[in-house]
Amino acid sequence: MKMLNKVAAAAFGLAMLGGPAIAEFPERNIQIMYPWAPGATMAASQVIADAMGQKLGVNISVVSTPGAGGVKAFETALAAPADGYTLFDGYVAPLVLQPMQGNADWSYTDFTPLWSATSNAFAIAVRADEDRFADVTALLDHAAANPGDLRYSPGSAGALPHMVAAKVMQTTGAVAQLVPYPEIDNAVRDLRGGILDFIVINPGVYNINKDDVKILSVLSTLDRSSETYGGAPLIGAAGIDMGMSNLSPMGWDWWLVHKETPADVVATLQAAMGEVVNDPTVQKKLLDMGYVPTLFSPDQYQEIVGPVAKELQGGIDAISWEKEKLDAL
Amino acid sequence: MFDLLTLGAPLFFTWQAVLLTAAGIVAGLFIGVLPGLGPLMGIVLMLPVAFHLPPIPAMGMLIAIYVGGSAGGSISAILLRIPGTPLAAATLFDGYPMAQKGRAQDAIGLSITSSAIGGLIGGLVLLFCSPLLAAFALRFGPPEYAAMALLGLLTIAVVSEGSTLKGLIAGGFGLALATMGTDEFTNAYRFTFGNFNLTSGPHIVPVVVGLFALSEVFFQIESGNFLASPNIQKLRVSFRALRLLAAHKVNLVRSALIGTLMGAIPGAGGDVSAFISYAVARRMARPGERYGEGAEGGVVATEAANNGCCGGALIPSLSLGIPGDASTAVLLAALFLLGFFPGPELFRYNADIAGGIFIAYLMGNIVLLVMGIVLVPFFGAVLKVPKAWLLPAVLLLSTMGTYALQNSVFDLWVMLVFGAIGYLLRRASYPLAPIIIGMILGPVLENNFRRSMLISRDGLNIFIERPISATILGLVAIMLVYAVFTILRGHLRHASVVNSE
Questions:
Q1: Residue A5's pLDDT is what?
Q2: Does B185 contact A at CB distance below 8 Å?
Q3: Which of B171, B201, B359, B480 is 20 to 30 A removed from A82 (C-alpha atoms)?
Q4: How far is A111 from chain B (nearest CA, A)?
Q5: Coil/strand/helix, residue B88
Q6: Phi/psi class of residue A60: alpha, beta or left (left: φ > 0; alpha: ψ in -120 to 50)?
Q7: Rounded distance, CA A294 to CA A292, Å?
Q8: How far apart are the first and last CA of chain A?
Q9: CA B303/CA B7 separation, integer angstroms
């Protein structure tokens, strides 16, 4: 009996010692900190999370942690252990923009990338029955001739859509009253109700409000962006150079983990996400929602994210210019 | 209306959603039975679990706890003359005398069946009215939302228990808490004290757990009697109550409708609706019914009303995003955490989710009807659990639930601080519900007011130029006059008592 006990104790001891080494990641549910309020864009992250969760055999919940222009979500994820169970939905605002503005003390190089997720261009939208402005030139001309007469919303103040819209308005001398909303989804209601004159929309929100809005211009230099808005004209077609090109004027996200996350955990997550974003079914789902899978692999992270910072400075300056103009009204 | 049900059915009729809704009813009933706990605490404790579930199983479970908890409070009122929740305070008027006469079994049966059928009636009104209200609310803009938030805040302050002035102060405290975090318009930090945990203000869950659960634990500790275990009459399963209830059809429907109406007014709440419907039933009773001495109608009136109220409270919550009471405020927080904005947009963009929630509510009440009767023998056993076991369990669940929400130790500190604040405020007879409503409605009020001012071309006139906003503000004015009148009357009465002494 004693011998049996010893054997059992030894087996138990070995099991305990071996436990952590044998246990394979992931053993429990994973969460990804999404930096904005719930809305159409969160649904795109949910599509990737669901598919990736299925690959890994656990549930991946997308946790909306809005606040401080995306910084709250990053801070919350940074406070969690570097064990791969807390991921960052690395949108351009908290990843690049907020550090540039001195609101966060990290750089994009402080994270390990999994894969890039999606990109989406922004567009200027008016009510479907709007008859005052035939095209974007008419709208911007009116705003230039009557500063502060029009009301517009880019969703939350200081975020990328606001920056891109401000840059276009600065380029054309147009001035419209900014009305911030927590998410552009909320502003659509007031556009429909005639309270707002135009909004800066994203493809996800456009897709579910197609009947209520009309796209005047897509704020991108890439032809494929036009496709996500039913073939609406790009801003260049109106002869406007907004000084931002390729990914710079677009919303995009990379999924990231802590720099200190163990290499085998990173490899497991990268492999799962790589499979998911390259899966045609997932891609179709995302495209149907208006989000274009960007398909940049982890080793392209530096070359893609690095140059964006420079062009964004123009957008930050444009917001300051807009503030000056509005304060002077 | 039926489109919503069709869309929601595939989401609800999964084993996970159905089982969790049934489990929520059982958990809610037991939480409601235990004196001091209630549906709000049940919802709060299960919130971190819900957070990791798909939306409809999660909301089904939480709503079922809300429904079960609202019904369970009557059992301790009937058996021990201690209402398990404030909602059941009016049930003891006739429930306890019934038990004294050896009819505890009937009283409990009537209270469960009235709750379930009252809840179902509330659910039908919810199903009919919410989409209509949501469609109407599509015409709402920032001025209307600001006016609605103001109305909700004033109502809860005026109607909540205790003095109106204290209600207003508590609501003001909630509003002040809501200013913490990041300013939505300038991205500036307000009262964050350099702590990133406060960049969105304190999280609503630790605040609610602290204010309600922890303060209750402190109170119970203070009152002693840790090992007391009451004597409970033996109870058994019986469906006789359904037959008894048939004699109170009119009372049942009337009380359920009163409850639903009161629930739909933000801030009015279930306890108020139970007292009102009890008063109405008593006035309309036949002479021989002897209300206050064990009348069946008294139990039917209060219980149908306080569960009808649940359906009512969900109407403004789901269709406007304006919570009807503290429990629905936390349900809204849960919906938001699950990735959905309550309000007209919920019906427009996520009609399946809205439909699934409606089905969960209706099915919850049907489960309540069955489980409430089947589980009757166990309620007595639960009531015998001494505080020495119960309080550590509540403390443990509160701590685990709060921590699990964001894996944040900071949240535990928030819970502790608000536990202390809740205890002190309750000792000074301040109502706590207005604090939560203030926290939820604060950003709605502030941001929509500022948005209105940016949109307006004519300053504050935007609020009276728009007919809906003007009408709501008219109601706000009436409410304000009523509040001032109540406060002055209280002072005059106090002065006359002092003079006569």
A1: 57
A2: yes
A3: B201
A4: 19
A5: helix
A6: beta
A7: 6
A8: 92
A9: 31
In whole angstroms, give the CA distance from residue B202 to residue B210: 12
Instruction: Tokens 């037991």: give the residue.
Output: B30
Beta bridge partners of A198: A152
Interchain CB contact of A73 with B (< 8 Å): no
Among A71, A157, A196, whose Cβ lies nearest the Cβ of B185?
A157
Give the nearest partner residue to B200 out of A63, A66, A181, using CB atoms: A66
Residue B265 CA to residue B257 CA, distance in Å, equals 13
Q: Residue A51: what are its φ and ψ, rounded to 5°?
A: -65, -40
Inform me whether the C-beta atom of residue B459 falls under 8 Å from chain A C-beta atoms: no
- Burial of residue B150 (CB within 10 Å: 0-12, 13-18, 19+) is buried
For the sheet containing A198-201, what is the strand order?
A177-178, A151-153, A198-201, A122-127, A213-219
Q: Pick A122-248's CATH classification: 3.40.190.10, 3.40.50.970, 3.40.1080.10, 3.30.230.10.
A: 3.40.190.10
Nearest chain A Cα to B405, which residue?
A63
The gap between the terminal CA atoms of chain B, to the nearest Å, is: 61
Closest of B213, B138, B221 to residue B394, by C-alpha: B213
CA distance B274 to B91: 8
User: Chain B within 8 Å of A68 (Cβ-Cβ)?
Assistant: yes
Query: Is A317 at the interface with chain B, CB within 8 A?
Result: no
Q: Is the pLDDT of residue A20 over 50?
A: no
Residue A322 is encoded by which pair of tokens?
Answer: 């807009």
Q: What is the pLDDT of residues A220-240, one digit of tens each?
A: 888 778 888 988 999 999 998
Give dist(CA A237, CA A234) in Å, integer.
Answer: 6
Alpha carbon of B229 to those of A196, B28, B72, B155, B390: distances in Å?
A: 63, 21, 19, 39, 12
Question: A188 in helix, strand or coil?
Answer: helix
Helix boundaries (H) for B81-137: 92-100, 104-137
**d(CA B71, nearest CA chain A) in Å:** 33
> Least CB-CB distance to B451: which of A61, A179, A183?
A179
Q: Rounded CA gap, B325 and B208, in Å?
A: 13
* Contact: A62, B455; criterion CB under 8 Å: no
Residue B123 contacts residue B358 (beta carbons within 8 Å): yes
Same fold, A10-119+250-296 and A122-248: yes
Sequence letter at residue A55: K
As a whole number of angstroms, the distance between CA B448 and CA B146 comes to 5
List pLDDT tens digits, range B241-256: 888 888 888 999 999 9
B275 touching A, CB under 8 A?
no
DSSP character for B197? G
CB-nearest to B52 from A61, A182, A195 is: A61
The answer as to CATH 3.40.190.150 being correct for domain A10-119+250-296 is yes
ipTM value, please give it.
0.77
Percent of chain B with pLDDT over 70: 96
Give the tens place of pLDDT for each residue, B40-59: 888 877 877 887 788 899 99
Cβ–Cβ gap A68/B200 under 8 Å:
yes
Task: Please report which helix (H) or strand (E) contains residue B437, including its range.
Answer: helix B433-455
Q: Look-up: residue for tokens 């209280």?
A: B490
List the single best residue of B185, B405, B451 to mutate versus A (max A Cβ within 10 A).
B451
For residue B67, which of B302, B372, B335 has the smallest C-alpha distance? B372
- Contact across the interface for B187 and A69, Cβ inside 8 Å: yes
- Domain layout of chain A by residue ranges: 10-119+250-296, 122-248
Kindly report the nearest CA distance between residue B273 and chain A, in angstroms. Answer: 34
Inter-chain touch A72–B196, beta carbons under 8 Å: yes
Of A178, A183, A190, Cβ closest to residue B141: A190
Q: Is A124 helix (H, G, I), strand (E, B) or coil?
A: strand
- Residue B246: the pLDDT is 87
B141 Cβ under 8 Å from any chain A Cβ: yes
